[in-house]
Amino acid sequence: PLPFILDTDPGIDDAVALAAAIFSPELELRLVTTVAGNVSVEKTTRNALQLLHFWQQDVPLAQGAATPLVRPLRDAAYVHGESGMEGYHFVAHDRLALEAPAFQAIYDCLTASEEPVTLVTIGPLTNIALLLTHYPDCISKIKRLVMMGGSAGRGNFTPNAEFNIAIDPEAAARVFRSGLEIVMCGLDVTNRAQLTPAYLAALATLNRTGAMLHALFSHYRSGSMATGLRMHDLCAIAFLVKPELFTLKSCFVAVETQGEYTAGTTVVDLDGRLDQPANAQVALDIDVPAFQAWVAQTLALAP
Ligand code: BDR
Ligand code: CA
């Protein structure tokens, strides 16, 4: 199985991504780290621990950055509810996060591995920027970074910027300049990666996991239960398991950090107009029916 680390800000679509991360037989989840994004880092950590407990998983979890590198946090409670995972009552447990902060735990996990490890980010890139700053030698230990973030077209937080990049543009800019091999699954594919109303309804009785996700989905404001819900973060996990579902283009990507109205925009140079070497593979198309079939197959494996 492919060893990887998941950096997340649960988040309702993050919860689905975590389910697939755990129950895909092709994957080996070695560490979960949390970051401030959809809600505060205390809440994203609490949510991630609740999910790990729900699935009886003992994968270690480390809490990460409480604020973006230089900006105050602007959250997405309007999408995911006040708790970040509104809609399901999780039982109490006594699981704790590791002592080490996320960037340190990631570095320790990378160093302990005999083979390079894949990093998957489905929240703002703050922890990864801190990792790169504290441990520049981490690059050789990372196989590649697969992110849900950015857009080659329009945004979903500001007119041009996608949420994960817009929340911490300075961190994202640092990551895109790092030399890491990057796969960017942005809104170009994730807006299309929807679950159908019929499948969403069927989830309620699929298994315990389906019932839990169904309850969360009734509070998730990324699409609607009646027309389909966008599974942004799940695309990053789908890419690990089924890269053939995605059409990628290698190009230069820069993150705007200065613009009065455009900070957090991923400038994706599809036509090579900036004459810069490519630094990312950008997902531009996804096989939606095949994605939906993979989701159904994977969530059926959950308890
Ligand atoms: C991203 O923003 C968050 O609200 C979602 O969890 C996803 O990571 C989509 O733009
Ligand atoms: Ca997320």
From TrEMBL:
Keywords: Glycosidase, Hydrolase. GO terms for molecular function: hydrolase activity, acting on glycosyl bonds. Residues 5-292 form the Inosine/uridine-preferring nucleoside hydrolase domain. InterPro entries: I/U_nuclsd_hydro_CS (IPR015910), Inosine/uridine_hydrolase_dom (IPR001910), IUNH (IPR023186), Ribo_hydro-like (IPR036452). Its EC number is 3.2.2.-. Transmembrane segments: none annotated. It holds the Pfam family IU_nuc_hydro. This is Ribonucleoside hydrolase RihC. It comes from Franconibacter daqui. The lineage of its organism: Bacteria, Pseudomonadati, Pseudomonadota, Gammaproteobacteria, Enterobacterales.
